[in-house]
């Protein structure tokens, strides 16, 4: 991690490799959350009938 100064503001530079590792995990978690929400809606539809 390094920092640079630009226009009087400090900007932190972060390596992209940790970010690349986090992205698939977030996508997997998000996909799981969506599938749970969809199955709950399907469950609600059957309960309402």
Number of continuous helical runs: 1
Sheet of most strands: 2 strands, antiparallel
Mean residue pLDDT: 77
Strand percentage: 15-25%
State the total count of DSSP E strands. 2
Shape: elongated
Distance between the termini: 57 Å
Structural class of the secondary elements? alpha+beta
Please list the strands of the largest sheet in the order they lie side by side: 1-2
**Which regions contain 5 or more consecutive residues with pLDDT less than 50?**
none
Q: Helix fraction?
A: 55-70%
Output the radius of gyration. Answer: 21 Å
Order of helix and strand elements from N to C terminus: EEH
Question: How is this fold's topology laid out?
Answer:
Layout: E1 2-6, E2 9-13, H1 16-48
Antiparallel strand pairs: 1-2
Short description:
This protein is 67% helix and 20% strand. With 49 residues, the protein is of the alpha+beta class.
């Amino acid at each position: 991690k390094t920092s640079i100064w630009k226009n009087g503001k400090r900007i932190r530079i972060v390596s992209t490799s940790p970010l690349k590792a986090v992205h698939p995990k977030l996508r997997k978690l998000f996909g799981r959350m969506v599938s749970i929400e969809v199955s709950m809606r399907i469950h609600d539809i059957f309960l309402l009938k």
